[in-house]
Structures
1.
Amino acid sequence: MRLWRKLTIGTAAGFILAGAVFFALDAADRVFPPPLEMTGAVSAEVLDADGQLLRAFATPQGRWRLKTTVADVDPQFMRMLIAYEDRRFYEHHGIDPLAIGRAGLQLVTNGRIVSGASTLSMQVARLIEPRAGRSLSAKILQVIRAVQIERRLSKEEILDLYLTHAPYGGNLEGVRAASLAYFGKEPKRLTVAQAALLVALPQLPERRRPDKNLAAAEAARKRVLERSAVAEVIGEGEAERAEATLVPATRMQLPALAAHLAEAALRSKPNEREHRTTLKKQIQAGLEATAKSAAMKLRPKLSLAIVMADARTGEIVGEVGSADYFDASRSGWIDMTRVSRSPGSTLKPFIYGLAFEQGLVSQETIIEDRPADFFGYRPRNFDMSYQGDVTVREALQLSLNVPAVRLLDAVNPARLLVRFRRAGVRPILPPNEAPGLAIGLGGVGITLKDLVQLYAALANKGEPVRIGDGVTAKPGKMDGEPLLEPVAVWNVSDILSSVIPPTGAPQRGIAYKTGTSYGYRDAWSVGYDGRYVLGVWVGRPDNGAVPGSTGYGTAAPILFEAFAKSSIATTPLPRPPSGAVRFAQADLPVSQRRFSINANGLPSTSSREQAPQIVYPPEGAHVDLGARSGDLSPLMLKLHGGRAPFRWLANGKPLSDLSRRRTNQWMPDGGGYSKLTVIDAMGRAASVGVFID
């Protein structure tokens, strides 16, 4: 008897000593440390500007394992999980002696395992170091690992590991992946029924998968709801209401928005877990729904692209690179937002803007739409007909080719490209060719993203803004001169905002322009309000012709639908700036009533070189520049005709140095009557009297 007592005491002492030595060495990580580094392999995530999930990528092993923390899930779920799995989680140090005693007693009493004694810490140990069998040695290892994990991690960190790695059947791991797959939402807000199902599934994930065995999933959820500890957490009557809720019988696809941009984000930083973009999830989803709907109506092999940007910040808020990323027949893998194509007539507004800025025309100026020969270049209208005499306003709204080329010839194609460079856009010219008149009709290459960047300046009162790439390139306002002066921008926007919407589309208060490239290869539409600019391209990625596809008939309906489905309220276009007035034709100066070119290639109303005439302000005009409030603004001055350089005088005093431009500014000393005079290089003068209010 004494021998057995000595053996028992000696064995116990040996175990105690061995345990003390082991845990002393474990404290220094010198022997058999837990493989916590194995917990790092999680899915890469692409997020929108607000942190919402746009797209997740499976781990190299094909698992959907989204990083999840306690802060990411519903607090009610956490209370139910702990109540069901490990009531004394916050009290024990890895193992629960009371649970072990209860499980042992039930085994002896019932002859079978009634309830387990695994703590959440032990389950985490099994998840990060899985073993095929359920032997006694495996259970002992779990116990050791659980104690080791508790010594190294906080309780919250242990819960984070469980929430990330808990199995939910198939290749789903973690609460977030399961919630997205079965409920289509993040687990931040869960119903009692949803929380109970997520608590129940990890125990036998394959047997209880709702999409494979609905009855088993319902029974498992019921057991969770009937547990007394859970009932105390969820409140009286909640279990009965939760049991009456249907269990989802199908598994949904995890979010897969912004395919092209997400791929680009992953390529840019392949080792990062989170990739934040400038996209807005709600807008992106709306644009993709628009693209999907439009693609069903398009012919085979046709693709489309959409870009939406904030004109004030330059941030891309929505982007669709193709009709369907996985549609090989449409070359869906090609991101058509970044491919250079012919822009058709979409550059015409900038030609008109330059003409307005230089004082060559006003909206009601008459311009000829008749056959013309520009040194061998003979532009023709899209429908092969001519309108004769039209106003500049009508010419832009109808997108007539000959008037646009007439104005481009007057303002100079090279000067137009200089303005594009101010906005950070460099269209691609044909090889070994200088800027020519064909630019006005699409004779350059430009990407949809760059086209949106140009139009963003129109929405931003002429101030250029750099459009980012949605991931790495920083957007923002650009330093330097404006793309166009505010009055010229207002004239362009005023005209484009009155273009009739496509058939069936509601009037949304946007300014928009369409374009069709030569041979029906590209259909474009770009529109903007006072805040956002949106561009649409439709065509074949292989640059094949698409007879009958036009900007107005094909791309414009998509533009209006995309604006509607973006769920953004229309922001009114900017108010007219100081000096912006739309004169009736009868009130125009003689020099602006009709636009023509003289024998020297200069704008003129006759065959002789014209003397200077002040176009703005007109004689006797009352101009509100804030004189009454004491906060004066400068007055825009414009002239037509004459020979540069020009000398401006206000009340007999020279304004500044000689200028070769036909526009200038004058800051008055105060309100009242003033006389403005301009003198050209030949000594010819023109004067007007104005009242500053």
2.
Amino acid sequence: MALSISQLAKDHQEFVLTKLKEVEQGLHPSSTEDEELVRRAVFSVRNKSIVFERFNGVSSILYASVQDVRPASVEIDFFKEELRCNCPQIKWCRHQVGALLALYQYFDSVQDWSSAWRAQKSAQLKTLAADRSPQSWELMVGEVMKRLLPPGRILEGYGLSAIRTDALERLRRHMPYEREWQPLYKLFMELAILNTIWRHLNETPGHSLDSPYMKYFIDQSNQSFENILAELTNRSRLFATDPFYDALQELVREFLLERKGLFPVRLHLYMLLWAVLFYEKSRREQELVYLNHLENPPEEISLSSLQLLFYVLLQKEDLLQENLAQVDLSQMQELFELATFAQRAGESHALAVILRAILPLLEAFLQAVLPVVQRAPYVRQFQLLFDEIELTEKEEVMLYSAFGVYGIQPFSNFLIKKGRYREWAALHQLNPSSLSYLEMCGLKDVLQVEPATVLPLYHVYAMAEVTQKSRINYKQAVRIWKSMRSAAKRAGKTAYFETYMNTIRTEYKRLRALQEEIEKGNLV
């Protein structure tokens, strides 16, 4: 029986319409490349260059060939609801769009669809890019994003990064040729896209900001901002770019104050730009005045944190200390961001003031407020911050006490630096780990200076192996005892070690395998 394409198209009309809707969202009429793609797809339908060769009823796959400069083969899988083409183009190609339109013509007008698609074009991106101004750049982002994010569209979590990447790819085609302008263009587009996506998530019911996909999307964006800002700091600033910096200032302020959810994330980006990008004193003073006169801010906005930020930038240490005297545990996350900001901005005096205000609250924050899985990473970050300032011995003890078991390594280094070797050994007896970790905590340094203090530690680790009662563990115990023998020799306690090993042999005389390993190791 002959293949009835007309009937097949009508039977799968919903599939064809759905896929064409995806084409409309994925291809932008303001893009020259996309407009050319659709034009050629429509031409292939009119020219009857698309031939449906066969339909596999078992797999529900329709096979089509497209006569093009290079012939292409398209598979339309109605069961899996996808299209495949053997051409090298990623995502939509003219062959797939042409095959869809070849089916669409059996129940509607291809010309009408093409005209409706082109009617959505309000401005050519190329034309907007030629008019280099912040307003044109904003319009370019708007043109791209309104196609990718139509009002009311519910985004799957994995779609966040895909939309960001797609939008950036389209906009990078119109990047200025001058190298001086390129980092600024990339920063503007990255920030505008992030702001637009976040606004869409806020305004469209059904979205959650608390998901692994959202975290990945944020991490991607933050890494991109870091890279672009590194480029910008190595470039001289042109006078003609001033209006763009003004627009960026307003854009990041809008992102912080008008978007909703994950305030620490928004604050982090705001701080990042003010630490690196906006360094003029007059600009910073104007922003502080704006924030001081801000009326009825949303509940999640912490004006005190924003004011502290500009006290750091403007080196208003008296106001900084006065406000930090009133902080409590609920503000620790914001104070951590503020300390990181001060370090990045190179404000060492302000960093010392902030960290000393944090110190009394640190133990409660790390041990009670933070989830267990986040404690070790935060301890490492706090350690890097506190390494930047000079602490008294009392403050150092308070710091390492706050770290608890998550700060054993930095506390070990502190004890070695102070020559408190017995306390170092006691710390590791109370918190046994492994010999490799001991070496990370300064074991070799202690062996050089006071090897006798390490002997009890070796005993603890060797006994832990013996209690496992297997030959592999006995071998490991012998290795530890050999290290213990070297330490005893260095400390002038060879006789003590010989007595110790005789005692071990006597106590464990029934463990034949252990006795054999001790003899093999020449420990007696």
3.
Amino acid sequence: MDGRALEQGQVYQAAGDLHVISHAGAGPPAPVIVTRTLPRDVSSFTGRDAELRQLLDTAGTTGIRTIDGMPGVGKTVLAVRAAHLLAERFPDGQLMVSLESHTRGRSPADPADVLDTLLTGRGIAPQRIPPTLAGRSSMWRDQLAGKKVLLVLDDAADQDQIEPLLPGSGSCLVLVTSRRRMVALDGAEPLPLDVLPPGQAAQLFTRLARRGPDGAEADTVARIVQRCGYLPLAIVLLAGRLAHHPAWSVSRFAEDFTATRDRLAELASGSRATAAAFEMSYRNLHQDQQSLFRHLALHPGPDMDAYAVAALTGVHPVARAHREMDVLYTDHLVDEVGPGRYRLHDLIREYASTLAANDPTADRERAMERLLDYYQYAAATADHQLARRPRPALPAPAAIPALTSRAQATAWMRTEHLNLFACADQAHAMGHPARVIRLAASMAITLRFKGPWLRALVLHEAAATAARQLGDRLGEAIVHNELGRIRRLTGNHRAATTHHERALRLYQELGNRLGETQALNNLGRLRRRTGDYVGATALHERALHIHQELGSELGEAHALNDLGRVHRLTGNYANAAKLHERALHIYRRLGNVYGDAHASNDLGRVRQLTADHDQAATLHEHALRLHRELDNQQGEAYALNDLGRVRRLTHDYATAASLHERALHIHQQLGNRQGEAEALNDLGATLAAKSARPREALALHEQAAQLARQIGSPLEEARALEGSAHCRSGTADGRNDALNDLGKAVEIYQRIGAAEAGPAADRLRALAVAHNEN
């Protein structure tokens, strides 16, 4: 600006822009006071209803409210929207100041310069403004004393930048936006912003793209905003591109965006870009923090704790890694998804990956080796607590969390299982078959208890392939035995038999008799499930004989308990009880909680059948408690269902139905089709008791029959048919179907030698007589 302009007008700054106000006359010009510098309200403001309501409710009076969140999450838009809605409550001024802490090409605003601008805007002559920060801050507070002013401080760096700008008056309101959590700003009420919920994200996209998709296109928009990580800035930029191309279809646009390898390049428009927003936050980190941030992108799993961060980055001790992650959390470069657990937003991970790609290959490979060593060692340590297996000799990381109890091991496995899957995939991609085998072995018992069984199958299949590649025949046998167990749990008895027979051959060729007994017992369990009780007995007896020869008490208990199950199914309740009691005695002497839980539940089933209902309930409740301690959801579901049977037998039908429903829900979640069929039959029997709900009960039995046929479970098919017959026998037009169903049930019971054969045959004769009499 030239000198002539200065002579003719008064100069002042407002919100960073220089203005000249012309005037005439010999006297001094009247001061110009700037009271309203809010930017225009955003007409396309969408979503954030809860956050906006919170701001309006709590900020409608006075005080300091901080709005923090990751780059591009919409902090400024929310603050401006709230400020416009609150404007009438603050008649003495609504001011917005950009502190430019993350503006490319600019340094963060100096609070002294900001105060100079604000005071000039209040009409203070430049020569009257104090030269020091403290003086200007005092004058600013004096200017606002008793006034009702709303002040928006946008893009703040930290509390040191903000503190001098805060009014002293309790009648003012300050809204602060920042990428950093203002944890040290006394008296401020924080409002952390997360990404948009999926529905609000889709609404924002369609509004800005000027589209009204429905049906299939609505699903397409949902995929687009998901690929944007539900980040408002990314959605705004992408929707803006589509809005300027009305001829483009949403589906074709989505295909192109989904196919791109560089999402961040697609999420740019002119000077606005998602990557640029992230870059400014990254530049504010010191060199060591930048290195740590880049390393985080190498982690293959969904989240991580400080121990994993320490292993991946080489930052030690763990307490230091935790402090460094807290810095990134404060700056909204990572999210804290649980106490001490961190996650990168998808787009930030992608940004970090582009940075990490420029690091030396050897550095990245060493980082991954450290991480895989950590997870492999920690998983083996946890498995040692859960399965009581010897811990293999593995390189120890610098630190792992406390895993010295079963409870700690269970909690760690539950928390880390997705990371362990990801590490197994990473090990496979890196050509480390031995790591895949060890991770699969460490996860085996946890996956058996809780699933997910389909994902477990993928992992164990990869481990079997790895074992064949290495020529590790013992490892291959172990994996096939585990695959057989999972196949049995999912109801694929044919595939399970193939796996166990393969494991048996390998163990026998290796002369590994203990492994041989495991395969024999597992084959026996399959024979029992498919109704071959004679074959099951022979296999369990062979396993028992070998265990006794080897002096393996634990294995002996397993074989005894399995033999007890076969005796129970064939009606030899006295022998079944003795076998379960012998097994239970060994398990308890050895302190084997898993065996105790199963043998107690099996003995409870025998007590049910011999009408000792009190003892049965006590045993099932004991088993239920142990299975919950073990975090064994499969065992928990069976105990719940068996306890439900006792309640039905003692005529507590409401409790019985509730227990069966809980068991059914767990079995369905796990994908345990055998357990699902059992629970369906028992729930049907409970609902049909005293003819309370026969139609609903009939539907459950029919569902169980269909499921039992699919998985090849003749006992549950027969139980379903018998239950259907009971439901149909109460009506005249249903007796023919009842006779037919009960006849089929009797034929199955007799063919497999089930204990139910005799009582079912008696009921069939009685039903036939009643039918003939009518």
4.
Amino acid sequence: MCGIAGLFRPGGADDSALAGIVGRMTAALAHRGPDAFGSWVSGRQGIALGQRRLAILDLSEAGAQPMHSACGRYTITFNGEIYNHLDLRAELEDAAAAPNWRGHSDTETLLAAIRQWGLVPALQRLIGMFAFALWDAETRQLILARDRFGEKPLFYGWSGADLVFGSELKALAAHPGWAPSLDRAALTDFMRYSYVPAPATIWRDVRKLPPASFVAFVADAGPGTSPTAQSYWSLRDTVVAAQGDRISGESEAIARLEQLLSRAVKRQCLSDVPLGAFLSGGVDSSTIVALMQAQASQPVRTFSIGFAEGGYNEAEDARKVAQHLGTHHTELYVDARTAMEVVPKLPRIYDEPFADSSQIPTHLVAQLARRHVTVALSGDAGDELFGGYNRHVWGSALQARLGRVPMPLRRAIGAALGAIAPEPADTLLNMLQPVLPARLRVRHAGDQVAKLARIVAADGFDGLYRTLCSIEQDPRATVVAGAERASWAASEMKQLRGQISLLDRMTLADSLSYLSDDILQKVDRAAMAVALETRVPFLDRDVVEFSTRVPASMKVRDGRGKWLVRQVLYRHVPADMIDRPKTGFSIPLDAWLRGPLKSWAGDLLSPARLKRQGLFAPTRVTRMFEEHLSRRHNHAYWLWNVLMAEAWYDEWGRAG
């Protein structure tokens, strides 16, 4: 795991000039790779590659980067891990196509694979997470590539005469010609989703490379050139193809999922440094930890974060699972003061507006884990692949029922539900929890009622689903000169050919955008800020492709999601230790904005300041803040969007 950066100046340049620039760009990523710095420059070819190294595999100099292929044609700077690289080495050796290996790093394996099979066939063979820049001296091309789900980030754009790229935007900002302009359409999309969907960034003409794709810049590329990214794998096509290849036997499905996940965990436990896992006590992280412990010769190191507020605290559940599995467990309880110490760091960590409030506990648990290990496995992606969100459970049923209700009546019902203040709803539902059946128990009932109000008033399934995924329903009313546009994920969804189930449609949409642009980026930045590598076994290629063949009835059943994953987990952990309302990795943001974060929020949201910054409509923001403080409505997530954008602008806005 590393931080990569570099530049390409078609036509060539002075070696020392390029070396100085790539040195500054790479230094901006020192947090991602504190173990070593490396660079390679060819002024004649106009190329400079840099890397900050976090040594995980092959700690020797044989694993240092940038790295040259044995044949001399390719030079690469690589961020990530190729989990099946030993299998690829064996395949190369069997074909008598292996070089004289200098070490045992996966980067060396990747270079040999590209030399033997070519770029696209090599990418299609990889099981892992990665982003890399590859210089091909023969064709004089710079190639940027990213893994199937975008676990590892990669940004690129033009800065004057230089094509610049890096693992984070701060690397691009270190280029002396950096002078971007704010993209208000990206800001508008951010207000809807709490993140900027790929391929956009908050800056105009600076892009995120979409997942499962690569882009090539040729020697005569002119400033501003933007070649079309090409895909080497498609989740959309995989989901469509699986419609005619469903798994029918439940026993077979359970056994196969356990086998595939166990193999993925084994692959991802390959490390030359200490390794552990995040454990929330929920279905996904408990499943990963259970399979880790089943293969381990000693107790696995596990880590969790707890809160004093009961509705947000999963630490006790995690502790019970850890005790049952026999892990070496470490937990940390945090309060609002601890969280406030993280808040000022967030704009620097994310370097574009990002407002998934679980970024705070994610950073804290990563910080906790880094004191003991260098690599941590997580349970991320289980929800997206196996139907774990409430919207996956409710979506089809709601669509079937609401479709029979006239639209005017639905709007009236939605308005009535929306008028219910959140705290009375929370109080009533909390009183009823002991007598409700398990499938009807929910945490944060007031928020769920507000969400239901929006759902009822939504028009059609696509409208309903967009409502479910949106924080702000009309972001153009909030962003000054705002506009919305289609994201890469939305374009992918529009290209669907053939019928797929509503559940498959929902999980596909979540995987293409929310998983890639929110969850994986949140974890990458939060963990790499403290030089912790995170790995996601659910995103093993074989597990993902298997998940597309699992029918809806084995994902959502009896009012609960992830039925199939639960069956695997029940082989290791008693069901009564796991079956409880889904909490999500969240903080008591609504209460904190009325309490310990109130003064900080009030300063950022003052009308005079908002008018001066010119990002958001001051009157609208003031009204929402007042309604939240008075408890008439819970606008915590909406306000967090505005706050994170304003805090980001303080840190980075003057660059534009």
